[in-house]
Design brief:
The protein is of the alpha/beta class. It has two domains: 6-293, 3-Layer(aba) Sandwich (Rossmann fold); 342-489, Orthogonal Bundle (Isoleucyl-tRNA Synthetase, Domain 1). It has helices at 22-40, 56-64, 69-86, 100-115, 173-182, 190-201, 230-235, 237-240, 250-255, 268-282, 313-320, 322-332, 343-372, 385-395, 398-406, 410-431, 441-462, 467-476, and strands spanning 6-10, 44-51, 93-96, 119-129, 134-136, 141-144, 147-150, 158-167, 187-188, 207-208, 210-211, 219-220, 223-228, 259-264, 289-293, 296-298, 301-302, 339-340. It has a six-stranded parallel β-sheet with strand order 3-2-1-14-15-9, with helices on both faces. Strands 5-4-8-10 form a four-stranded antiparallel β-sheet, with helices on one face. A hairpin with a 2-residue loop joins strand 16 (296-298) and strand 17 (301-302). It binds 5'-O-[(L-methionyl)-sulphamoyl]adenosine. The site of 5'-O-[(L-methionyl)-sulphamoyl]adenosine has 20 residues, from helix 1, helix 7 and strand 14.
């Protein structure tokens, strides 16, 4: 297997101020699916997640819990680290912004901005939302009863007046627009790109990048009074984890800027405006792509602790199975848009796509081979036009499949695969191999071989979404998943006739 390209895929680092919920799980699984797909396609991948532990929001949450900020972060960061195991994420690293390696990188970046003349001392007077850790202009604020709230997130804002260091964001407006223009794929989907461009065209104000009214954060180099703005701190994690700060920065040299940041739409401005501006100022190439997904909605609202409408990922996983939840989220939520999820839809999706379609295909073919072919891979003879049609409808589409995932068109990818499973079921119904046992064993064997090959290919394509279940199916086929890759899907004759199959287990239960 030859290595093709390098990819650095990241999730946002999570605020450990709340228990992980379905929105967090969704964000992580999306990134994991792309990381697994790129590895399946023989690319070298570095996949990062972690926790964003500084700032007033965390300081307040720790206080409320009667803990020091670091004890509080140690506890909650662990629940996010545990979640990576529960969700079977294939991350290569888990970064915490309270680590020394990160502290060093933030200082290094700050000093680069300073050296470039983009940092100056002044006074901030304006609105701040602790919940979003974001500054807002007057025209971004609404009245709600006695409170002022941010239009965009509806979170409470407060008036802040304090000495602050600023980043000369206004000076980067034209160069950002030029960068977006030269890098058409930088912000995806297109609707988000347009949103960002019109925001930047509307005029950029200099950005306050330090606070003096609290302590919990990374101090400005040689200035203990100022804590670095938590978003400047947090975004830098993408560099810290690949050792940008070290003399030996081979990971950085290998993976940067071939980077895909998967983020939610609520944090687009930080990633698509502030982050490339900081990087350009520091003389570092911005990442290749920022892909912004929508929100997971429960009813019509964003799922969040403050709204009390949380569907617990761990409860659902215990009840329905991890791969079932991963499949449902990736299939049902159109990537880039908001998606409503519910128990009823989850059950419908598991039953129709997994139990009745793909699971049924596996179950009936494997049981039939078990009872009529001594549980060995049957030997195919001549392939008919029907056989070739089914086989080729996958093999001739490999480039299309690869392109779908390069463009983060995950829903079409899953649809293609599950539609193929539907075709394979139809093929079996039409071919009726069970009628041939006494009359034409060669033909029966060929049909079963074609069906088993289809099961192998579907399992490989679905492996980024459902790693455990597809691995179990490939194990039943006596195939070592590690030796399979995307290219093996375009080979129709991988299964070895006469080879034993392993014991059959039920993969997808009906609910
Ligand atoms: N700490 C920042 C990210 C810093 S990245 C340098 C943050 N953390 S978060 O915990 O609030 O959110 C993490 C991710 O989860 C974000 O991408 C956010 O969009 C996503 N989600 C949080 N709730 C969500 C939903 N209800 N639905 C989908 N994703 C949402 O932001």
């Amino acid at each position: 297997m030859k290595n093709k390209n390098k990819f650095y895929i990241t999730t946002p680092i999570y605020y450990p101020s709340a228990k992980p919920h379905m929105g967090h799980a969704y964000s992580s699984i999306v990134a994991d699916v792309f990381a697994r797909f790129k590895r399946l396609d023989n690319n070298e991948v570095f996949f990062l997640t972690g926790t964003d532990e500084h700032g007033l929001k965390i300081e307040n949450a720790a206080k409320k819990n009667n803990q020091s900020p670091i004890d509080f972060c140690n506890d909650i960061s662990k629940t996010f680290r545990d979640l990576t195991k529960i969700l079977n994420l294939s991350n290569d690293d888990f970064i915490r912004t309270t680590e020394t390696r990160h502290h060093k990188t933030v200082h290094l970046l700050w000093n680069k901005l300073l050296k470039n003349g983009d940092i100056f001392l002044s006074k901030y007077k304006g609105w701040y939302s602790v919940s979003d850790e974001a500054y807002y202009q007057d025209d971004e604020i609404l009245n709600e009863g006695k409170n002022k709230i941010a239009k965009i997130s509806r979170s409470k804002v407060e008036w802040v007046e304090e000495e602050s260091f600023f980043f000369k964001l206004s000076a980067w407006q034209d160069r950002l627009l030029e960068f977006y223009n030269n890098n058409k794929d930088f912000i995806m989907p297109i609707s988000r790109r347009n949103e960002v461009i019109s925001f930047v065209k509307g005029g950029l104000k200099d950005l306050s990048v330090s606070r003096t009214s609290f302590n919990w954060g990374i101090k400005v180099p040689n200035n203990n009074k100022h804590v670095i703005y938590v978003w400047l701190d947090a975004l830098t994690n993408y560099l810290s984890a690949i050792n940008f700060q070290n003399k030996d920065n081979s990971l950085y040299r290998k993976f940067w800027p071939e980077s895909l940041h998967i983020i939610g739409k609520d944090i687009l401005r930080f990633h698509a405006v502030y982050w490339p501006a900081f990087l350009l100022s520091a003389g570092i190439h911005p990442p290749k792509k920022i892909f912004s997904h929508g929100w997971i909605l429960s009813g019509d609202e964003k799922m969040s602790k403050s709204k009390g409408n949380i569907l617990e990922p761990i409860d659902l996983i215990n009840e329905f199975g991890l791969d079932q939840i991963r499949y449902y989220l990736m299939k049902e939520v159109s990537l880039g848009n908001d998606g409503k999820i519910s128990r009823e839809n989850l059950i419908l999706c598991i039953n129709s796509d997994l139990a009745n379609n793909f699971g049924n295909l596996c179950q009936r073919i494997l049981s039939f081979v078990n009872s009529k072919c001594e549980n060995k891979i049957p030997t195919p003879k001549e392939f008919t036009s029907e056989d070739n049609e089914l086989l080729n409808s996958m093999t001739s589409n490999i480039e299309k499949i690869r392109k779908l995932m390069t463009n983060q068109n995950l829903n079409e990818y899953i649809k293609f695969t599950i539609d193929y499973s539907f075709l394979a079921n139809k093929y079996i119904n039409d071919m009726e191999p069970w009628k041939l046992f006494k009359t034409d064993k060669d033909r029966m064997n060929t049909i079963l071989y074609v069906a088993l090959e289809s099961i192998r290919k579907i399992s490989i394509l679905l492996s980024p979404v459902m790693p455990n279940s597809t691995n179990n199916i490939l194990t039943m086929l006596n195939i070592d998943f590690k030796k399979q890759d995307l290219d093996s899907v375009s080979n129709n004759l991988i299964l070895k006739p006469g080879q034993d199959l392993n014991k059959i287990k039920i993969i997808f239960k009906k609910f």
